[in-house]
Amino acid sequence: GDITLAQAQKILTAAVKKAEEIKVPMNIAIVDAGGNLKAFYRQEDAFIGSIDISIKKAVTARYFNMSTRALGAASQVGKSLYGIEVSNNGLILFAGGVLLVDGNNVIIGAIGVSGGSVDEDESVAMAGAAVIK
Amino acid sequence: GDITLAQAQKILTAAVKKAEEIKVPMNIAIVDAGGNLKAFYRQEDAFIGSIDISIKKAVTARYFNMSTRALGAASQVGKSLYGIEVSNNGLILFAGGVLLVDGNNVIIGAIGVSGGSVDEDESVAMAGAAVIK
Amino acid sequence: GDITLAQAQKILTAAVKKAEEIKVPMNIAIVDAGGNLKAFYRQEDAFIGSIDISIKKAVTARYFNMSTRALGAASQVGKSLYGIEVSNNGLILFAGGVLLVDGNNVIIGAIGVSGGSVDEDESVAMAGAAVIK
Amino acid sequence: GDITLAQAQKILTAAVKKAEEIKVPMNIAIVDAGGNLKAFYRQEDAFIGSIDISIKKAVTARYFNMSTRALGAASQVGKSLYGIEVSNNGLILFAGGVLLVDGNNVIIGAIGVSGGSVDEDESVAMAGAAVIK
To answer: What is the reported pTM?
Structure first.
């Protein structure tokens, strides 16, 4: 149950298409079930600082098997996971990291997107994740 | 569209002049369009700990194409980018990092200043950035 | 003079084709002219430890504008650059990192490949680099 | 007995002049007596990977109060300091790092140069160091 390069390419293509539709240049990272980088694209003019963030979003989502939005909600000031971001060489606590779950409901990896607002990032990640369901 | 050493020297000279006017010794760092260090000055008695902060401010501004003040505003407790500072080996979220944009409106790098209050730092960064517009 | 995502995809496709021909699963990383990650593919069963090596090979080639093979030759025991690998958070001194030079002889980035023998890695990198000349 | 910014600028100017004479674009770093970055210039087309190396050369020279050439000679395979380069977050063991000693024979810092052959680098470092003697 691990992502293939062919699947990753299909996901990247769908994510790029969505990014082009909303006209926001993105960094798009895909990690496998082990949380290791599988594939990555950076569009022209996408933030340089979002390379690392997109990868960390994908890693964060897979490391805890939830979206970075969900982990972030549990990590705010006063919440139970407050401060978790300093673990694992840095986690990202805002939206844009989404699990990749295939048609058999198996987690095969995660996608992280960074370049726009966190809602834009997440919409691109979900467009990518949708194609393998 | 990348900064030249001659431009960087001109920016440093203007920033030093401003720092002398406000009588606060500063660390002043300039990175190019790729986010790599281009030039750096530390004035006498400027904080040693501000070497790294000035460089990180310049990198942060270029990595996200906005001032560190603007990024910081979006990263406060409860805001959408809360926790972003753990990415990219450490980002700086307070004022003093400013984009360098030339007369043709091209981003050619960024300047980061550290040594005084964040408002003082930013005033020196802006004095530097102004000379290439 | 910087690499586009379309160019990076073309290079990755050519590199993957070569890797399939020689039947060695590879990690293939592309960095832009600033040395920042632009695109990445990992084939099924390629070494996990080669993710970092492939990226560092690409970075190393661009950071010194020569192949990692050439830099490695100058860094052997008794040679002038002995020990250089501890700089820049780790350089890779064996073959598999190659500059990306376009038809106008402009350096637009670099490619790093890791997964097989260093000669196999370099053959895949060169197959990728060839398509933009 | 510490270097001033005015002295550092004078040294940088002399080093740049030498680099232009030998037609090799250089990264030139100056650290103070405490081993902390004081000033830095990168010329157009100088290797990106040499930013870190030039700074490490200056730090290395000051940390052990000898040129990186001299430290390198004592650190080769079979020599007494073999392996020292992994300390201090990475030392550089080849020529191009030189102490800055003023007219009163006081060590006020060090200069590190990287961008050409190690002999070229060292010639630029020495041209810079000469102006404060």
So the answer is: 0.96
